[in-house]
Amino acid sequence: MKKDPYEITVIQKKANYHQDPTLIFNHLCKLKPDTLLLETAEVTKKNNLESIMIIDSAIRISAIDNLVEMIPLSINGEKVLSILKLIIPNQVQFLIKDKKSYLIFPKFKNNIDEDKKLFSLSIFDTFRFMIKIFKTKKP
């Protein structure tokens, strides 16, 4: 069996439903920086409610317009960025300055239709690149 070159361990825990996930999130994270609470649901029915908490981050990722800034928050984050740099397509610029990494994506043309936008390179490809090169394994 061929082993993938880059494996990461994602620690996930399922929890029972709680009416106010922000209480749990605040209890777990308190004043810890670089955390995130994501909540999803079907808008009209409130079905499939799900909360995802990111409590221990390796990289802080932020984007404005076509620029993505990635700041490693740990040795793991530094390693991820060093690997990510290897697979970035030529149409995207990869810059490093003061331990921060930057991706500059091509700007969209003003008259591009929505279907073409969906399939064009964009800041969201940052996450697609990471998903593509890292295989997650269960702890």
Helix and strand arrangement:
Layout: E1 7-9, H1 21-29, E2 36-40, E3 50-54, E4 59-64, E5 67-72, H2 75-84, E6 93-97, E7 100-104, H3 114-119, H4 125-133, E8 135-137
Parallel strand pairs: 1-8
Antiparallel strand pairs: 2-3, 4-5, 5-7, 6-7
User: Kindly, what is the distance between the CA atoms of the first and last residues, rounded to a whole number of angstroms?
Assistant: 19 Å
Name the overall outline: globular
Based on helices, strands and strand pairing, what is the structural class?
alpha+beta
Mean pLDDT: 85
Give the fraction of residues assigned to helices: 10-25%
> What is the number of helices?
4
Strand content: 25-35%
Low-confidence stretches: none
Element string (H = helix, E = strand): EHEEEEHEEHHE
Number of strands: 8
Lateral strand order in the biggest sheet: 4-5-7-6
Radius of gyration: 18 Å
Largest sheet features: 4 strands, antiparallel
Provide structural commentary.
The protein has 139 residues and is of the alpha+beta class. It is built from 4 helices and 8 strands. Strands 4-5-7-6 form a 4-stranded antiparallel sheet. Strands 1-8 form a two-stranded parallel sheet. The protein is globular. The mean pLDDT is 85.
